[in-house]
Amino acid sequence: MRRIGIGLVGFGWMGQAHSRSYRRLPMLFPDRAADPELVICSDTVAERREEAVSAFGYGDATADWREVCEHPGVDAVVVTAPNMLHVEIVEAACAAGKHVFCEKPVGGTPDQTARAAAAAAAAGVITGVGYNYRFAPLVRYAAQLITEGRLGEITNYRGRFFSMYGSDPLGVLSWRFEQEQAGYGVSTDLLSHSVDLAHMLLGPAATVVGTRATVIPERPLPVPGASHYGRGAPGDPTAPVTNEDYVGALVVFENGVHGAFESSRTLVGPESQMAFDVYGTKGALSWNLERMNELQVYLAADDANTGYTTVFGGDRFPYHGNFVPGSANGIGFEDLIAIEDYEFLQALARGEPFRPGFEDALAYVAFQAALIRSWESGAWESVVPILEVTA
């Protein structure tokens, strides 16, 4: 079986999730076209580098991410570093002829995403973006119902991503709260997932008007390597939060559908409510990550049932059975990462494009750029392409 060498940059939460995923693929997908090999990992924290080799099975670890991009045994570079480092790493990987999988949003600003996409297009490499919720089996079933016309003509859409990770004022000032390291805040971190799913289900937005807010203006300083789930103590030194905690937007899609989006990291209540509702002339559906193995479906043609029906996940839906058999035996968040990494590995082995790729990252940041203009103008703004990519 063909071997594909994986190099990873950034061994935090998502870096470890992808590393576990690649280790699991041979056990989960017997029909795979290639086997991944964890070649080299880079991270600035020495303890993480040691763990990458001793516990995760990487062949080597380094503090210098450039060694990952230049390693002769690496075929694909997986970028899970802070957002503002993305573009430099992606450009170096592409220059070295490596395929690239980058966690969303690919850079911290729309201009950086455009630079990364241009580098990949010029190098002709295969790209992937970590919009992992596309791979939930019931999200794919929702897309099937929409495509088959079971909901009739789609009229309205509501997308949201509410997370409590930033609701505690003692939550530390990780890189996600700093414009210099993360770029924008929840419009990059959370809203990108929500809008990307809408793009997959309905197509692109045409116009947007929105607002933003920073709810907790300062946070305790973190220890090195602390994640956005870390917590400080009363009296710890603090520093300002320099990007947004909340964003809300109204949109009109190119197909005429009207929609609304919200994202927040400081609300109290929703733990990880990455959710959407789709409304049509013949039915509606609703999905929520907090109950990711359930899809709420209402079909108006069913006269005997005038409310939503719960559809449970199960092995009748693609990939679910790779993890557990039967129906209503749930899969989890990292199983979506495994599906995502499996499809990326298959694309590399076959030399085929992968979706979502950098073109999908560009589609989101075109929306984000219009939203940012709307923050400043207070008016509706048109979504216009930032960069056309043909590779």
Task: Describe what you observe in this structure.
Helices cover about 30% and strands about 25% of the residues. It has eleven helices and 17 strands. The protein has helices at about 15-30, 45-55, 65-70, 85-95, 110-125, 135-145, 180, 185-190, 190-200, 335-350, 360-375; strands at about 1-10, 35-40, 60, 75-80, 100, 125-130, 155-165, 205-215, 220, 240, 245-255, 260-265, 270-280, 285-290, 295-300, 310, 380. The strands form three sheets. A nine-stranded mixed beta sheet has the order 16-15-14-13-7-12-11-8-17. A six-stranded parallel beta sheet has the order 3-2-1-4-5-6, sandwiched between helices. A two-stranded antiparallel ribbon has the order 9-10. Helix 1 crosses helix 10 (about 335-350). It is globular. The model has no long low-confidence stretch (mean pLDDT about 95).
> What kind of oligomer do you see?
single chain
**Beta strand %:** 25-35%
Q: Would you count the extended β strands for me?
A: 17
Strand order of the largest sheet: 16-15-14-13-7-12-11-8-17
Q: Report how far the terminal alpha carbons are from each other.
A: 27 Å
| Number of separate helices | 11
Q: Give helix % range.
A: 25-40%
* Biggest pleated-sheet summary: 9 strands, mixed
Note the overall shape: globular
Overall average pLDDT: 95
Low-confidence stretches: none
